[in-house]
Amino acid sequence: MATFLFYMLMKNLLKLKLLLEFKHMKDFSEENLVVFGYLNVDMFQKLINMLPSENKARWFAGAALNSSEQAMASVMSTALSRLNAFIDSELEQILCFDTSIDVEEFCSRKSAIYLVLPEEDATKHFLISLIFQQLYNTADSLIVGNFLGENALAAVSSSGNLIFLMVGFFSGIAVGAGVVIARFFGAKNYALVEKAVHTTVAFGLASSAVLTALGVWLTPQILIWMATPENVLPESILYLRTYFMGSAGLIMYNISAGILQAVGDSRHPLYYLIISSFVNIILDIVLITVFGMGVDGAALATILSQFISAIICLTHLMCSKDVYRLSPKKIRFDLPMLKMIVQNGLPAGFQNSIIGIANVVVQSNINSFGSMAMAGCGAYSKIEGFGFLPITSFTLALTTFIGQNLGAQEYERAKKGARFGLIACVSIAEAIGLAIYAFIPALIAMFIQSGDVAQVQEVIRLGTMHARIMTPFYFLLALSNAMAAVLRGAGRSIVPMIVMLCCWCVFRVTYITIAVPIRPELTTISWAYPITWGLSSIIFLIYYNVVDWVHAYGRSKPRKMA
What HEC string does 331-389 produce? Predict the structure, then answer.
């Protein structure tokens, strides 16, 4: 994007020089055109303040000041587009007809336009973070499956949905906290930044206590409700109870990492996550193979590594000399600030909870087919998580690209980019799906090497059968995600949320509830995914072709800056 804008600016400057070669005016009385300084938050705010109040770039300033470099780039794109148009038309008229600028001097003197974009690549950090998060989630299953057998693998690999259900709501609220902190930080209201940071940490501590109590108390009841087989139930209870006893580490890392990301620091949370991932792997191996622990060793390794990352992250905040410095003495609830955080985070928390409940319903039906089905499907889910990482990163970039170009009123370029993104996502996903289809038996075998040979083969067979129903339809999953990314970039984020909640949650649960009793087979559950992916894809395609999503920004009313 930056390369394209630089090319366009240089082209127009050359055009301008040729046009004005035959004009003669007086002394150059202005600074050389435009100078953009380094875009930290302060300079960015100054840039926005220089724009006219009716300029559309100001409409999107709130988003830019709220979060990361990606949102900032959207507004930067708009500002640069305006500059390009100014050079192309208005400046020509000013120089030719009504100014005292000496054109010969202007065209012959050394002049510069500085285009300095943020030095951090948020997309890069996001992708690496996804990789290590997935590695974090997969390590326990790999090590447990290879050393403790299929029952232990079933207990660990099938626990992710229940963990997400318990943690998802609090994580959604934490997202709202990040939005609030970023907004005040961007507005340079440092007093409110301080209140928001300490209220967020207080909320994290309270959430940790609540989640620990709920997790330890409700785990047996929920696992029984999920139809967990009796031969797996004791190990599942042990793993999850141990995990939830250390849930404070998970929540406080996410809270503290969210604070750093809200103020523009995406590097340090990534570094701490990498450290935690390696610590988790080392502790898994040591506790299980050296000390002879079972699934409780895997859970203990996870919570210890989470506590390490949380402690490092909190220490970073307490040692910081910036305005977001954390002081333990100031950790308390500010009720108006807490209300604002909850209001911003409640939609995400609610969405996470609904998705979590749907996933638990699906998992409960898988559990009803026994421990080997749990182990096989659980192993495949870890493989799918890694396989779909490129699509996740691509959709992130697609959202940013669409937002940038629509903000700059480059509607045709946005439509071309959307078409390319959709085709690319579908093609890449299908290639990945076919590759997994071909190699899935060997991939699942990586997770289960110990135990009875016949049982190991059955785990591989069930996991392979489950995967080979789903992987040929990855193009539908990618299409839905890419469509959602395009619409989010166009400012219509409510649409993909509603579509996915209806199709991937409500309809999927309804289908399983009706279909499984009629045809009680594991394949019936497996088909729930392609069917719901296809349904959401159809709805997205209809919306994409019928609704004028391209001009959503153009019809939006400008909001007053706070």
Answer: CCCCHHHHHHHHHHHHHHHHHHHHHHHHHHHHHHHHHCCCHHHHHHHHHHHHHHHHHCH
Lookup: tokens for 7:
């090319």
Q: Say what angle helices 335-367 and 160-186 make with each other, to 10 degrees.
A: 160
Residue 325, amino acid? R
Rg (CA), the chain: 27
Give Cα 171 distance to the centre of its chain.
12
**Count of residues in the chain:** 562
Token pair recorded at residue 557: 């009313």
- State how far the Cα of 188 lies from the Cα of 41, in Å rounded to an integer: 9
Four-residue CA torsion sign, 432, 435, 441, 446: negative
Cβ(208)–Cβ(245) under 8 Å? no
Write the burial class of residue 100 (CB in 10 Å: 0-12 exposed, 13-18 middle, 19+ buried). exposed
**Single-letter code of the amino acid located at 10:** M
Is residue 466 within 8 A of residue 377, CB to CB? The reply is: yes
- Two structure tokens written together for 385: 């998580």
Using CA atoms of 429, 434, 439, 445 in order, give the dihedral in degrees to the nearest 10. Answer: 60
Encode pLDDT of 48-89 as tens digits: 556 555 554 544 444 344 334 444 444 444 444 445 544 444
Q: Residues of 504-518 as b/e, b for ≥16 C-beta within 10 angstroms?
A: bbebbbebbeebbee
Side chain identity at 388, as an amino acid letter?
F
- Give the integer Cα–Cα distance in Å for 93 and 89: 7
DSSP 549: -
Residue 143: both structure tokens together: 């090590």
- Per-domain residue ranges for the chain? 2-108, 121-347, 369-562
Sign of the CA dihedral with 187 first, then 484, 405, and 115 last:
positive
Of 348-352, 403-407, 555-559, minimum mean pLDDT range: 555-559
pLDDT, average across residues 220-226: 88
Task: List the beta strands (DSSP E) in 56-146.
Answer: none
DSSP per-residue codes, 449-502: -SS-HHHHHHHHHHHHHHHHHHGGGHHHHHHHHHHHHHHHHTT-THHHHHHHII
Measured between alpha carbons, how far is residue 122 from residues 128, 267, 287, 292 in Å?
10, 9, 35, 41
Cα separation values, 234 from 127, 193, 324, 460, Å: 36, 46, 44, 23
CB of 439 within 8 A of CB of 467? no
- How far, in Å, CA of 132 to CA of 129, rounded? 5
For 523-532, what is each residue's pLDDT tens digit? 999 999 999 9
